Amino acid sequence: MSEVAAKDPREILRAVFGYEAFRGAQEDIIRRVIAGEDALALMPTGAGKSLCYQIPAIARAGTGVIISPLIALMQDQVDALKQNGVRAERLNSALSPEEAHAIERRYAAGELDLLYVAPERLHSPGFLEFLARGRIALFAIDEAHCVSEWGHDFRPEYRRLNVLHERFPDVPRIALTATADSVTLKDVIERLQLQNAARFITSFDRPNIRYRVALKDEERVQLLEFLRSEHPGQAGIVYCMSRKRCDDIADFLERNGAPALAYHAGLDAETRAARQRRFVREEGIVMVATVAFGMGIDKPDVRFVVHLDLPKNLESYYQETGRAGRDGEPSNAYLLYSLADVVNLQRLMNASSDDEQRQRIIARRLDAMLGYAESTECRRKLILNYFGEERADRCDNCDNCLEPPETYDGKIAAQKALSCVYRTGQIFGAKHLIDVLLGRDNERVRKAGHDRLPTFGVGQDLTEKEWKSVFRQLAASGLLSVGLEERSGFRLTEKSFPVLKGEVGVRLRKDPYSKPRSSGRSRGPIDDALENETELRLFETLRALRLRLAKERGIAPYMIFSDRTLRDMVRLAPRTRQEMQLVNGVGQNKLDAYGDLFIQEIRTFQR
Length: 607
Hints:
This protein is globular. The strands form four sheets. Strands 3-4-2-5-6-1-7 form a seven-stranded parallel β-sheet, with helices on both faces. The protein has a six-stranded parallel β-sheet with strand order 8-13-12-9-11-10. The protein has a two-stranded antiparallel sheet with strand order 14-17. It is built from 27 helices and 17 strands. By secondary structure, the chain is of the alpha/beta class. 44% of the residues lie in helices and 12% in strands. The relative contact order is 0.10.
């Protein structure tokens, strides 16, 4: 790559990566780092953060050292760069001593453009001395939110990365993250000593992702219908809170014809690595995982992310949904939740032994997550506002914009529910309270003497499902709280009494339930972007060629060409190398390696 080291960033972008223009703040960040200055980049997943350190590492003399938190991802990142002709390697525990020594010799000889390392290795004895034997172009600290205890993926070893600035004060640093609220961002700046760094906080918006929320109503059926009707044969991630649920859901999908794998911390490291490789290198795999899976996943063609349990905060939710549609193509973020999710998260928060300040921050984040799930407003607007980005208009690409929910005056229903909680002693859960409100004359109600309460039978104007909705919304809005014990019931809060006295009104929403687009196979998002059936057939033909080549080379299909690049090929139908160079994502190295094969495939198809 030495022959392009002196070129302008735009030349590197075109020649190496095959793109004609930078996006957003990319060029400003890149030129700042090339000039030897520090930078802090807060950009959403899929916005092209990697180029912000890869291009400066190629342009500057020496080797760019990239600190990345997940060893399992480094090989994929290195393989993808090598497909573009970039001299990249990684040093981690997965290498044999002989392999590591060979890479170290190449680094010392100045033969690498980028070197990926884990933070643990950076702190190992003698490693900083080893780095000093070579020429360092820059330090890139990926997933920088890991440095903060307020970040959703806090890594203690990240806390000591300030040693880079202390040991190599003249080497520029760039810290990058996709999610950080103001508290986390402040911590990152202080911990990494980036007070003088240029800050690039770009829009958090991911306009290609459609945000949707629905109540659990036979969640397995909802999930299967969603996959069959909207994403047949496409890759995606399904998040669950527990290991057992991951195993059970993956098994259910497999039995119903959807290729699925479970991924969680209960599996041994070798199994996890093998399943991650399958997900990245095969097409159409559904990964059912705990949050142990996903940070830094480079697979660009993840078409959907489903949450079967309510996340603890919007930072985690936004980071996880951001793993869909990194290629900019239409994708879905689908959240299913229930009253039980609300109760469990509140119980976890109430059981916290953290100090008062930390509890306030945790409570604020939980309130924001619950507010998002229950909101009748534009969901994208809520997310962006949470991260400090003002948006006044509707996005027209979330469920609340596309199908505005109905609301109703819930003052009377709320008063009945709160009164029932109070009169039954503030120790019962929703099931018993609903039995009382509906006037059910069962043994438990009679034994407690609740069939003689004024609230017995006063709620027969609503169904059981509607009362569950009322209790869930009251809990989510802070009008009810839950005790610490697993079977403890609802309690009134300070906010409850003005409602009971009629001083404050309550507006409730009618619950949204899952509405898959159709019951049969439908075209997926990439299919919908193509003009006609002929284009769709050519796309699938090129996709099959890509998969065959990827298997032969032992790499992921997207490392050859992304779906977006294949779609551009379909649109332009290049028949010569000169025409192939006009396709978005075809750099010189890929043109030499694959151009003739894809040109021949297009010619054959058009005969």
